[in-house]
Amino acid sequence: MKQLTDLDLFKILVIDDDKDVCDFMTDFLQEEGYYVRAITKPKKAIAEIRTNHYHLVILDLVMPEIDGIHILKEIRKFDDDAIVIILTGYPSVDSAVESMKYNVFDYIKKPIIIEKFLKVIAKAAEEKGIVLDASKQIYNEIGSQLKNLRKRKNFTLRELAAKTNISISMISAIERGQSAASVLTLYKIAKALDSSLSELFKNFK
Length: 205
Fold this sequence. Notes:
By secondary structure, the protein is α/β, with parallel strands linked by helices. The chain has 2 domains: about 130 residues, Rossmann fold; about 70 residues, 434 Repressor (Amino-terminal Domain) (Orthogonal Bundle), CATH 1.10.260.40. The chain is built from 10 helices and 7 strands. The strands form 2 sheets. Strands 3-2-4-5-6 form a 5-stranded parallel beta sheet, sandwiched between helices.
């Protein structure tokens, strides 16, 4: 999975003719740490997405001059990988079906619920192989190292659990990157495998 750094921010483009919507989206997304550019002129949006790469485009459907479906078609002419989320105050079955033809990730009705919307963004990024949460990346790396080490030492989960007095479910969760193990727990596991903590953290040098 790709881990974004400070020099490679998750870039979001908001395209909506309503300035209040653009300001609202910009404010709360920037507070979450995203790079955000908002455009209220659809014609300018087409030029922007042709010259700059964005990981995510949040696109309104009903706009003057150029509608959202037209912009969506333009996006897909030169960028098949960008995540596109439709955000509309006028949802319809026809527009939903039409937009889905162009690999739209989600179709969301205004007004949005911020918590749910952030989860949609995180899920979209994850499906693209982009890790937005650095802590999750760390858990995944430690879990992968632990699993590889355990297999090299020919230990089953049951055998390792018995030797460390740590439950099978806990060790399994650590290996899957789904649990934040304490340093003491990792030390006990590494010692049981005749290894060291540095082996589990070797990819973070």
